[in-house]
Amino acid sequence: MSKAFVPTAAKPGVITANDLREGHNVWMCEDGWTADPAQATLFEDEAIANLALLKAVGQSNIVVGPYLVEARRGPNGPEPTHFREAFRQRGPSNYFHGIQTAKQAEASNV
Amino acid sequence: MFDVRPVETDYVRHRAAQFRAQVERRLDGSLTEDEFRPLRLMNGVYLQLHAYMLRIAIPYGTISPDQMRMLAHLAETYDKGYGHWTTRQNIQFNWPRLVDIPDMLDKLASVGMHAIQTSGNTIRNVTTDAFAGAAADEWMDPRPYAELLRSWSTDHAEFQFLPRKFKIAITGAARDRALVAAHDIGLRLIQKDGQTGFEVWVGGGLGRTPMLGKVIRDFLPEADLLAYIEAIISTYNLSGRRDNKYKARIKITVHERGLDVFKAEVEEEFLNRRRDFHGADREALAIFRDRFAAPAFRNAPVDGYEAERARNGAFRSWTDTNLHPHKVDGYASVIVTFKTPGETPGDASADQMRLLADLAERYGHADLRISHDQNVVLPHVHKSDLPAVYAALQGAGLATANAGLTSDIIACPGMDYCTLATARSIPIAQEIATHFKNNGLEDEIGKLNIRISGCINACGHHHLGHIGILGLDRAGVENYQITLGGDGYDIPAIGERAGAGFPYDQVVPAIDRLLRAYLEVRADASERFIDAYRRLGPAPFKAALYPEPAHA
């Protein structure tokens, strides 16, 4: 569903995928891929986004299944607009596992 | 003692080595993801919402203590300390790294386990009654036939690229606990004129088009089992819809073409196929019968058990709900529920797995089963050992007396893990179970089967729940449809949708109103929810779910 998303200035988007070796979620950022969705590049132009997506597809030795998905500009970086992406960014609700543990570790180091 | 370890360990090791080489080629860029994906799926490796997932086969839910300990080891070494029992009697690990999976498969192979055909359009794990070989109402143990089907279907060259996945269930008991009517092929062991055979069902399944199967053969002599199953699947292989994934299951083939047309082709093909079977299957079956021979049951007094029941109310309550009648006097099958209110249905920690392995060895003739309702069964426990088993389970948080009750909820992983999901399942299950624990109504409500799926694919079997809950995405918000009147056991039935869906935070209040209405309208305490629903129809229950707005 998300793969057909076309970003515009009014409805920007991010590119996200899974890390090939580890499997965790990653987002395309200025200098590659990040596990922190707040660092993701926000695309507002269809052509630039599609070019970036092509680049992501070409990095299949690093990531799996890259796709464009809607995001909104938030005070600390891109934020999800759909609950599926919100869960991908937060981790499961039944255990404190996955991406949320990395966020907590980062917060405690600040 | 039986031996569940498959004999083809060398083959399993070979497959693990093959997958290791495939992973290496994927990592070094020799294989693209499009090339690698079908290879990893053939070995049970999915890419889910947060991570890879490895689904490991537990043939017909039967597992030995050393295999269970290996699962515990994998949970601790490569996952986050736990595994998840699935509704098809398998186990899933939610967090493995791709680079670790070859090591996991090697270790599984060392105990005769694997992940072959736990995904893909192949014949999946053959499932059966979790009380097989033990149940008082069983007249023949179906596991030798299940093992025959497993060994025949594993790597069956003709059936590696079926139109869609294919699921077979088999039962040998009076009460169908294997859900034969909800499988692509369902088999009921029966006897006719002194001869053993099968009533063969075809075309059942849940998912987006739920259908109960139809009987394609009233009586199939047992000697013809593989030839007939092969005839059904080869007929489907040619005539199944490959043009549309959503119409590719055999249930649609049978429905669209008609049972009579399909059956005629199967019967013709059966005559051809039968010529190819020269007795090797009969020899294999004889070996499997030996492998599944009943353990050496002991004859001992049960006075201690009765005394403990009289003395300890909690133990009595647990024995009232969590035991299943055994065919041998003095024995019972123990249902260890992984449904403690507030916990994730079907999740087992490594320590819990090890405890179960120890208990099975010490008290349970070294036999363990994974049930389709995401619990574990110790099929053969002498009643004199039950106080000790109960005490050990209590220490591991596994002695909840709720088998078959409101909190014994079947739930798929939902959007907390699954990439196909449209809404979450687990927290809904947790909240319902906690709610009815806290309000103290669970015992009063009695037997109830709630099942939750996080998408239309129905891994939580919501259609077969007395109360079914289906999580959907409605305009970007989680929304839950409720179905009523489903049954997977006594009178197989697909539940009917009650009405409009509920937002996430309204599901528990809706179920609360529904069950309080049931308590009001039931004839007496012995009338289960499903019985009251059948007697009264949906009206009083819909009225409870959708009350008229109060007017000032």
TrEMBL record, chain A:
Protein name, UniProt field: DUF2849 domain-containing protein
Source organism: Paracoccus lichenicola
Automatic annotation (TrEMBL), chain B:
Coiled-coil blocks: none
Signal sequence region: none
Transmembrane segments: none
Keyword set includes Transport: no
Nitrite/Sulfite reductase ferredoxin-like domain residues: 52-110, 334-394
GO MF annotations in UniProt: 4 iron, 4 sulfur cluster binding; heme binding; metal ion binding; oxidoreductase activity
Protein name: Nitrite/sulfite reductase
Pfam family, one: NIR_SIR_ferr
Keywords: 4Fe-4S, Heme, Iron, Iron-sulfur, Metal-binding, Oxidoreductase
Species of provenance: Paracoccus lichenicola
InterPro entries on file: NIR_SIR_4Fe-4S (IPR051329), NiRdtase/SiRdtase_haem-b_fer (IPR005117), Nit/Sulf_reduc_fer-like_dom_sf (IPR036136), NO2/SO3_Rdtase_4Fe4S_dom (IPR006067), NO2/SO3_Rdtase_4Fe4S_sf (IPR045854)
SUPFAM superfamilies in alphabetical order: Nitrite and sulphite reductase 4Fe-4S domain-like, Nitrite/Sulfite reductase N-terminal domain-like
UniProt keyword annotation of Protein biosynthesis present: no
Nitrite/sulphite reductase 4Fe-4S domain location: 119-270, 409-545
